[in-house]
Protein 1
Amino acid sequence: MENYHKGKNVEEPLERDKIPIPNLPENFLWMQVRGGSKIRNLVSHALNEFPSAKAVVWTGFGQSVGKTVTCAEIMKREHNIQLHQITKLCYRIVEEFWDPVIPDLDQIVVKRKLPMIHILLSLETLSFEESGYQAPGSIIPFTGNSGSRKDSNRKFQKISRHKKSQ
């Protein structure tokens, strides 16, 4: 790759009608989370606009997926977990163009599929039959193979005591 330098990126455009959540409300706030966005700014804007909109869609792709989930969870906590939620995962296509440094080489185009998340939060009741639906106040338990949290804390305590006695 020393014979190329990075050119332009062409991203698939984000459009309201391409959000993969069926039966979206007519009036909703669309929060697009980017890598450089500050969580406190995003959440404060969404909380200020939410009373008039009654629904918000959080969207993020690539490295901002985690930040998007964080914003949605903070908003749910601020509303005492009284919000209905539908979560959808998909991909966004980004084309990267690499321009040759040596004139004899051809331009390289790399197509990447970046993970993308859309989270709809609403005060209105949503279709509970929709995949990705989470009811207000419901907690989805984690069923990992590593055992319960109590067991892992016990293991940590035993290790800590053993290290202190040495």
Protein 2
Amino acid sequence: MGAVLGLCSAAQLACCCGSAACSLCCSACPSCSNSTSTRLMYTLMLLLVMVVACVTLAPGLHDQMKKVPFCQNSTGIVPGTFKVDCDQAVGYLAVYRICFATCLFFILMALLMIGVKSSKDPRAGIQNGFWGIKYLVVIGGIIGAFFIPEGQFASTWMVFGMIGGFCFIVIQLILIIDFAHSWAEKWVSNYEESQSRGWYSALLLAMLTCYALTLTGIVLLYVYYTKPDGCDLSKFFISFNLILVVGASAISILPSVQEHQPRSGLLQSAVVSLYVMYLTWSALSNSAGECNASISETNQSSFDKQSIISLVIWVCSVLYSCVRTASSSSKLTMSEHILAKEGAAGQGGLIANEEGDGGEAGQEETKVFDNEGDGVAYSWTFFHIVFALATLYIMMTLTNWYNPSSQLSKENVASMWIKITSSWLCVGLYVWTLVAPAMFPDRDFS
């Protein structure tokens, strides 16, 4: 499935280079919906931006940049007037500027797509095409962002970054909870249909693995982020979240919950528990004082384990939102805006015909077909807002959630509270998906 979607996305990317390349790739690409390939193209754009931002954090790049002619503090001859401060071209200041331009691009796209109901809207071409122009716009915006005077830019943009990063964490919570429910329901359904011990063993093994990792995480948090004397706040966070995940696991197997949701169970709870412990670790890594075991592990030009794991989870969440379709296992209303609606305009979608240079119609059909002729499969405006927030989350993750002008320290109390609050919100959202059908039996939560 992933290879098919990748080929469809490559077909759209080839259209940046001309109709001949597009025809060649489309003819080799298995059929997939236009809504899916478009979202994958925007995901590819965001991944490339993340790679570029990571490159600017590479050790030793700062000294190499001083040899570049357009740097103001270049060690060589500086021709012309095109000059950039090298200190802003690498490190956290560069990440801020790269993500600033990318975020503005997605905000602009969100504004342009307001009110689009189907692919028959003239603006649909902007959403689903013009990839070469879009990439040039992003590249131009990034170059222009490096000429922004420093002043209060970093400290002001950091506030927007923290707010946007928190909002994306909330969306990521929804995606993870949806993933937990869809995963468990799929495997339970396979077990019920086949009565195979293999599916039962897989369910049991997955659940035990997640709980084992959660328990291991709790022990390590107590070992590395607490001390016998003091560290009361860290002890509270770990202990309170432990109580929350145990409580959520107990709620998931209550008879009243099982009556309304027979396929809910400990597998979903195990996945949520593991993610909550990750958020707890992420929050404690930004805590202040001697209780922060990772405070000396990171400097402003390198990545730590938390950043790498955060980026991996981010990539998985974004890809999941691209390939996942909303169905009965989408327990939260907002999932309908993030995930594509299954079968949207499915029968009414048109498959475009490829035409040769001589104008002959009726040749090979384009494999990327329009499935949104009768109605959009997902909210285009909300999609771009999510990607703008995802860009801010990347920015804050790569900069370890603290100001570029700060000292080499991971202390950030505001970030700590954002992440620990997110862990509580995660448990709250998950518990709501369990108890809502029992509390409101007359409402349809499917």
